[in-house]
UniProtKB/TrEMBL annotation:
Pfam family name, one: FeS_assembly_P
InterPro entries reported in the protein's UniProt record: Fe-S_Maturation_MIP18, FSCA_dom_sf, MIP18-like, SUF_FeS_clus_asmbl-assoc
Gene3D superfamilies (alphabetical): Fe-S cluster assembly (FSCA)
Domain MIP18 family-like: 13-83
This protein's name: SUF system Fe-S cluster assembly protein
NCBIfam families to which the protein is assigned, alphabetical: SUF_assoc (TIGR02945)
Domain of life: Bacteria
Length: 108
């Protein structure tokens, strides 16, 4: 089944809402505001591809965090398949954080 652009936009908004419930255990800010999500692609069939990174390759949750992201996104209504690609290019840095995240951490 193919979804309309509006439905895909709704699915995308719901995915972002869910991503904002996933936190980096070392920083009290969600992974979306931290800028760890590089890309969310949604096909017409609602297959989702997420490209994300971690604050460091040696992050203690390198195994569990991507799995948590995948599991939570899979629960979004109408989402079909979820593919998650972990990348360290470009390397994450503090400039990728949203203003909100910087404010939360007292960096502004």
């Amino acid at each position: 089944m193919n979804f309309t652009d509006d439905q895909i936009a709704d699915i995308g908004e719901e995915i972002i809402r869910v991503l904002k419930t996933v936190y980096d255990p070392e920083i009290p800010v969600d992974i979306y505001e931290l800028g760890l999500i590089y890309d969310v692609q949604i096909s017409e069939e609602a297959d989702v591809k997420i490209i994300m990174t971690l604050t460091s390759p040696n992050c203690p949750v390198a195994e569990s965090l991507p799995q948590e992201v995948k599991d939570k996104v899979k629960e979004v209504e109408n989402v079909n398949e979820v593919e998650l690609e972990l990348t360290f290019e470009p390397t994450w840095n503090k400039d990728m954080m949203s203003e909100e995240a910087k404010f939360e951490l007292g960096m502004l």
